[in-house]
Structure to design on (244 residues):
């Protein structure tokens, strides 16, 4: 296997591991990685969504087991986001516009992984259902268009609004990512879908990272230095995408 391919799969397993420690599927990381390797959006979007579905489902399982999932917090976001994620997946963006939007959305995981968006433990406030529906619909639309699950946006929003603590936020985000990614895949299948020929190898590598990350993340693993390293890599990718 060429050295560049070894580096690609090494970064892929690292992305899956680190994202799953906080209940995320990792689509934004996979898309940034594939952008570095010049994957076309037509291949990158469905590939990232499939990887996202699998890793988010794994994360959901482990966070469910710890008793941190809240249906009350989850359902308004999911109810509004699933149909808009489907609609967003039917929208084909110009490749340049696609890369710039992806570059801008990478700011969310960069801030989260670098620790800038960490919030202090404060009293949990009552969730607003109308606002939750509005937030879910907006995140779902962007998720479908770009090929992400939306957890990178939802998590900081929940924390900043003080609607849940870190563990409950991670648990809700994991399942939110799964249902949005699934809606996006269904939408893209209706238009014809293209996968990379190495998809099964990518899934296998990502699953290994996702299993380890979800297990240790649900057990309160802290990997600050690795997360900051990934944040730096994503920052470089974001700048590259925005400069195109």
């Amino acid at each position: 296997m060429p050295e560049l391919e070894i580096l690609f799969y090494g970064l892929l397993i690292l992305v899956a591991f680190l994202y799953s420690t906080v209940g995320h599927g990792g689509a934004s990381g996979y898309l940034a990685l594939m952008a570095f390797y010049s994957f076309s959006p037509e291949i990158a979007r469905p590939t990232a969504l499939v990887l996202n579905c699998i890793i988010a489902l794994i994360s959901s399982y482990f966070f469910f087991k710890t008793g941190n999932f809240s249906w009350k917090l989850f359902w308004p976001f999911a109810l509004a986001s699933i149909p808009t994620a489907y609609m967003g997946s039917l929208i084909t963006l110009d490749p340049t516009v696609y890369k710039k939007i992806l570059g801008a959305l990478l700011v969310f995981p960069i801030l989260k992984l670098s620790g800038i968006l960490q919030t202090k433990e404060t009293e949990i406030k009552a969730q607003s259902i109308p606002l939750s529906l509005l937030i879910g619909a907006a995140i779902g639309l962007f998720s479908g268009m770009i090929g992400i699950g939306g957890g990178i946006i939802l998590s900081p929003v929940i924390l900043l609004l003080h609607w849940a603590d870190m563990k409950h936020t991670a648990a809700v985000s994991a399942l939110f990512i799964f249902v949005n990614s699934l809606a996006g895949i269904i939408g893209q299948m209706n238009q014809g879908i293209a996968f990379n020929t190495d998809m099964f190898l990518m899934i296998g590598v990502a699953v290994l990272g996702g299993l380890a990350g979800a297990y240790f993340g649900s057990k309160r693993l802290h990997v600050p230095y690795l997360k900051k390293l990934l944040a730096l890599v994503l920052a470089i990718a974001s700048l590259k995408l925005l400069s195109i």
